[in-house]
């Protein structure tokens, strides 16, 4: 099957700092692909390049077969950035309305999606509250809802569960699988090992490089260890040698 | 209270300035800028007002009057000579219609016209024949301060000229000055002149400052980058905000205009819709400027530092208080670079002089060009990627 997300030798330099070093990988439709790695590994940079909001120093990125530099297919992509990135001086409703309108949804669809998503993220009661008055966890949930308004085919989630309580994390993952069933492809970043276990594919990143890639259980059995953490350490040490 | 802890806080704050050299430079540069600009421009008096002078008087060959010692007397030449060149910038014209049109075209504040036989009629009245002589001033009376300055210079010159030709005190009653208002009237108050300037300034300031802070916040929150990942285009964002600010400007202008009319009794001579349209254009142009400037600020603290650099040139150079020709000539070219100047000129022509689109289209075009440049610039800026 044609990959829906593809990076070809993508590099990103900030001055002399190499944030990404010739990363190549691809994601097949319907996968939940997790980029796993410590802070500073280059996960967020990679997601921003795949989103087209950052230009790679070298290499090319494709989403749904189109070079992201062209800006095409954006309406089929949803993005939840690491920082909450919401309009704090607007209400929950106004934020969802803005994203609905940006993606060209009609009024009826916006209201329908808003109701579904607010029920899911448990914020129905807060619909008319200012975002500035919400807790960090609530903002995080709203941020996810904004990315989901237009039911995107491809979903980029940058650290979607940071600061989310365990109960809600479980419901987030249930929702991700539900989306996957509907055909949505998800690329997410995480530094939680247990979360990476739930992905259908993982890519291990360190110092701007993709050091290993595969299905979680396959990665473990290949080198005969019990956890992804051990897999990560195995490849990290290999990289140092 | 422990001194040591107090000093610890002092040190921390000073360290912050050491890291942020720009803020430190700002602290030094602003008072310097203020003193320089105020010192140069704000003398409280008006200078260099362009006034047209035309005389058809040919003087008088004097042989008969004992109180005029000279042989040749020419009162109009005396007035021309004695007009204060520090206050007035005199241009002599020979064609009446051309001279008058220069006031109509707002190239000059006044036109002093001295008719034929001016000296002769004055002298005749002195010896008991006729009503004396009369000179006429055609005025742009939109600024009462300037009207006042022109007349005080003129009456000073008249007085001196009579003294020069007469050996003894002679009365000035035989010389009358007729005022002919091209714009404004005797009822024009300073607030009438001042109000369009203040309104334009308020529109400009609020939009520029709000946009800078708004966009610095958007950059910091990550919303700007998030929007960049959506199908929304940079120009949609810029124009969307421009429209929002344009509407805010209109509301703002309504409030100030109503206050002016109801509270201060200002009169609006021209088309109110045209006046609002100009406020709208001033607003969107400065919104674009705000976005451009926001790129130069990393946080709200740095954003605020732009404010004096926007406010002072506008307050001092755009002609809110005194006309551009009263600014020292070294600084005058700078005034023409301040977009607000054209906004104020246009609003004044519409609101005080009662002129229409045909008379202010140049100013409007300049404002539109400014808006187009800043909006295009900010679109390019927002499209730029890391």
In DSSP terms (H or I, runs of 4 or more residues), the helix count of chain B works out at 15
SSE-based structural type of chain B: alpha/beta
State the CATH architecture of the largest domain in chain A. Answer: 3-Layer(aba) Sandwich
Q: Let me know the average pLDDT of chain A.
A: 92
Shape of chain B: elongated
Oligomer: heterodimer
Can you put this structure into words, describing what you see?
The complex is a heterodimer of chains A (241) and B (386). Chain A is α/β, with parallel strands linked by helices. Chain A folds into 2 domains: 5-189, Rossmann fold (3-Layer(aba) Sandwich); 211-241, no CATH class. Chain A contains 8 helices and 10 strands. Chain A has helices spanning 43-51, 92-102, 107-121, 136-148, 166-181, 193-197, 216-223, 228-240; strands at residues 5-14, 17-27, 32-36, 58-63, 66-67, 77-80, 154-158, 185-190, 201-206, 209-214. Chain A has a 6-stranded mixed beta sheet with strand order 6-7-8-3-9-10, sandwiched between helices. Chain A has a 4-stranded antiparallel beta sheet with strand order 2-1-4-5, with helices on one face. Chain A is globular. The mean pLDDT of chain A is 92. With 386 residues, chain B is of the alpha/beta class. Chain B is built from 15 helices and 7 strands. The mean pLDDT of chain B is 84. At the A-B interface, loops of A face helix 8 of B.
Spell out the blueprint of helices and strands.
The complex is a heterodimer of chains A (241) and B (386).
Chain A (H helix, E strand, L loop, with lengths): L4 E10 L2 E11 L4 E5 L6 H9 L6 E6 L2 E2 L9 E4 L11 H11 L4 H15 L14 H13 L5 E5 L7 H16 L3 E6 L2 H5 L3 E6 L2 E6 L1 H8 L4 H13 L1
Parallel strand pairs in A: 3-8, 3-9, 6-7, 7-8
Antiparallel strand pairs in A: 1-2, 1-4, 4-5, 9-10
Helix pairs in contact in A: 2-3, 2-4, 3-4, 7-8
Chain B lengths: L2 H17 L1 H21 L7 E7 L4 E2 L10 E2 L1 H8 L5 E5 L3 H9 L5 E5 L3 H9 L6 E8 L3 H22 L9 E9 L6 H32 L1 H6 L5 H31 L7 H23 L5 H5 L1 H12 L14 H4 L3 H13 L5 H27 L3
Parallel strand pairs in B: 1-4, 1-5, 6-7
Antiparallel strand pairs in B: 2-3, 5-6
Helix pairs in contact in B: 2-12, 3-6, 7-9, 7-10, 7-12, 7-14, 9-10, 9-15, 10-14, 10-15, 14-15
């Amino acid at each position: 099957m044609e990959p829906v997300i593809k990076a070809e030798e993508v590099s990103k330099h900030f001055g002399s700092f190499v944030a990404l070093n010739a990363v190549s990988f691809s994601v097949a439709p319907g996968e939940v692909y997790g980029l796993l790695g410590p802070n500073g590994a280059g996960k967020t940079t990679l997601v921003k390049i795949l989103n087209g909001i950052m230009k790679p120093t070298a290499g090319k990125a494709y989403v749904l077969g189109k070079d992201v530099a062209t800006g095409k297919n954006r309406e089929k992509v949803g993005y939840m950035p690491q920082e909450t990135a919401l309009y704090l001086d607007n209400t929950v409703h106004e934020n969802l309305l803005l994203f609905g309108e940006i993606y060209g949804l009609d009024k009826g669809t916006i209201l329908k999606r808003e109701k579904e998503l607010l029920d899911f993220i448990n914020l129905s009661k807060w619909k008319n509250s200012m975002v500035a008055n919400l807790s960090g966890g609530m903002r995080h949930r709203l941020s996810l809802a904004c990315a989901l308004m237009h039911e995107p085919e491809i979903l980029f989630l940058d650290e979607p569960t940071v600061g989310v309580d365990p109960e809600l994390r479980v419901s987030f993952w249930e929702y991700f699988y539900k989306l996957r069933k509907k055909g949505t492809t998800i690329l997410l970043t995480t530094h939680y090992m247990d979360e990476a276990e739930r992905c259908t594919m993982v890519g291990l990143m360190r110092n701007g490089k993709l050091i290993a890639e595969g299905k979680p259980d396959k990665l473990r059995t290949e080198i005969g260890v019990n956890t992804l953490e051990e897999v990560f350490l195995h490849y990290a040490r290999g990289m140092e040698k | 209270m422990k001194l040591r802890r107090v000093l610890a806080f002092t040190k921390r704050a000073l360290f912050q300035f050491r890291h942020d050299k720009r803020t430190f430079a700002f602290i030094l540069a602003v008072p310097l800028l203020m003193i320089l600009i105020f010192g140069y421009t704000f003398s409280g008096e008006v200078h260099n007002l362009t006034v047209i002078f035309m005389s058809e008087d040919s003087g008088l060959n004097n042989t008969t009057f004992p109180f005029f010692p000279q042989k040749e007397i020419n009162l109009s030449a005396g007035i021309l000579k004695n007009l204060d060149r520090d206050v007035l910038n005199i241009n002599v014209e020979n064609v009446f219609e051309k001279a008058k049109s220069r006031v109509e075209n707002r190239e000059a504040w006044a036109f002093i016209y001295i008719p034929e036989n001016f000296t002769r009629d004055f002298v005749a009245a002195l010896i008991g024949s006729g009503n004396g002589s009369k000179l006429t001033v055609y005025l742009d009376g939109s600024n009462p301060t300037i009207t006042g300055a022109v007349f005080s210079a003129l009456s000073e010159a008249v007085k001196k000229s009579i003294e020069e030709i007469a050996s003894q005190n002679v009365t000035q009653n035989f010389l009358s000055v007729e005022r002919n208002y091209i714009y404004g009237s005797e009822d024009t108050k300073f607030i009438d002149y001042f109000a369009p300037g203040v309104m334009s300034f308020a529109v400009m300031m609020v939009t520029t400052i709000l946009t800078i802070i708004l966009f610095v916040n958007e950059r910091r929150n990550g919303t700007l980058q998030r929007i960049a990942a959506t199908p929304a285009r940079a120009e949609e964002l810029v124009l969307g905000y421009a429209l929002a600010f344009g509407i805010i400007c209109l509301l703002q202008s309504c409030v100030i205009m109503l206050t002016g009319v109801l509270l201060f009794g200002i009169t609006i001579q021209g088309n109110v819709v045209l006046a609002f349209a100009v406020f709208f254009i001033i607003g969107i142009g400065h919104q674009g400027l705000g976005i451009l400037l926001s790129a130069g600020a990393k946080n709200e603290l740095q954003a605020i530092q732009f404010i004096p650099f926007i406010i002072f040139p506008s307050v001092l150079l755009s002609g809110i208080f005194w006309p551009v020709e009263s600014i020292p000539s070294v600084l005058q070219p700078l005034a023409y670079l301040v977009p607000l100047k054209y906004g104020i000129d246009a609003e004044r022509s519409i609101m005080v002089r009662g002129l229409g689109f045909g008379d202010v289209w140049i100013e409007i075009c300049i404002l539109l060009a400014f808006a187009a440049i800043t909006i295009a610039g900010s679109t390019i800026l927002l499209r730029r990627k890391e």
